[in-house]
Automatic annotation (TrEMBL):
EAL domain residues: 23-276
Protein's recorded name: cyclic-guanylate-specific phosphodiesterase
Signal peptide (UniProt feature, chain positions): none
Domain of life, source organism: Bacteria
Length: 277
């Protein structure tokens, strides 16, 4: 028995070493992924539930790895964060998505773009300046961009983060709190952030039709947010029931697999042409 245990331990150790090696390799490769043009953006429609029209898309990054295939962001964003690569990554995402905005515009498609930013971006004192300069340089109206920020991006250095966010907000950029409900901050604390939009995390929306608790959480969040003058986006809408439930309760925007999965840029035009929105 002891022998078998030892063998298991050896196999286990090998697996750990294997994973560590794998991870180290990924870290090294990530550094050149941008230069090698291996990153790609997918776009997921954000539906305006009042206008019944897609006005925005959220840019979501993927890594098209030459050997490993498509790597989802949850598998490499945390590594990029630890490696100090997020400033480079976010800058790439912004450049790429503004170029895509312009490309769509030249095809007669008007879609504002939401971009995810991380804690590291807000710690970079040049972040604000970079964003504003980029918008000027590309010649796009500032309302074209929404920045989605999770509360953990703010908590580690709230003073500096709030300072940067205020400059961006005052310049006309739209700011949104992402994954609302999964962190530890209260809405009262989050209200100190200069944001105009709140995204209810998909974990409260996915099972809306079968969970009385989720219904209570979402409807009270809607009320509270509206009373505070925030507009609300529900993410993770996976069925028609949830969509209608949210429309009936005055939720401003919706996003989720029921409407559309994230699509590559070319497919967005087809999707728009064939959807009722
Ligand atoms: P997120 O910002 O909360 O994005 C929403 C995630 O939920 C996306 O996963 C999207 O594909 C997925 N989703 C959308 N609708 C549904 C639905 O109806 N059901 C379910 N189950 N899932 C849905 P994705 O693309 O894998 O991105 C995961 C996370 O990676 C994002 O979560 C975001 O935190 C991060 N991320 C993605 N792109 C970027 C980026 O460019 N920069 C940064 N900093 N983070 C990014
Ligand atoms: Ca997001
Ligand atoms: Ca989210
Ligand atoms: Ca998330």
């Amino acid at each position: 028995y002891a022998k078998k245990n030892k063998l298991e331990q050896q196999i286990y150790n090998q697996q750990i070493d294997g994973n560590t090696l794998d991870r180290l390799q990924l870290i090294n490769e990530l550094k050149s992924a941008i230069d090698n043009e291996e990153l790609v953006l997918f776009y997921q429609p954000k539906l305006d539930l009042k206008l019944k029209k897609v006005t925005h898309v959220e840019a979501l990054v993927r890594w098209r790895h030459p050997d490993r295939g498509m790597i989802p962001p949850d598998d490499f964003i945390p590594i990029a964060e630890q490696m100090g690569q997020m400033n480079a990554l976010t800058r790439w995402v912004m450049n790429e998505s503004i170029d895509q905005y312009l490309k769509w515009k030249s095809q007669g498609i008007e879609l504002c773009i939401a971009i995810n930013i991380s804690a590291e971006n807000l710690k970079d004192v040049h972040f604000c300046r970079y964003v504003l300069d980029l918008i000027t340089e590309k010649g796009v109206p500032i309302e074209v961009l929404t920045l989605e920020i999770t509360e953990d991006a703010v908590v580690s250095d709230p003073e500096n983060a709030i300072k940067q966010l205020k400059v961006l907000k005052n310049s006309g950029l739209k700011l949104s709190i992402d994954d609302y409900g999964t962190g530890y901050s209260s809405l009262a604390q989050l209200k100190q952030l200069p944001v105009s939009e709140l995204k209810i995390d998909k974990s409260f929306v996915q099972n809306l039709m079968v969970s009385a608790d989720d219904q209570i959480i979402v409807s009270s969040t809607l009320q509270l947010a509206h009373n505070l003058g925030l507009s609300v986006v529900a993410e993770g809408i996976e069925d028609e029931g949830a969509l209608n439930w949210l429309i009936e309760r005055g939720c401003e925007m919706g996003q989720g697999y029921y409407l559309s999965r994230p699509l590559d840029a070319e497919k967005i035009a087809d999707w728009l042409a064939n959807s009722p929105y």
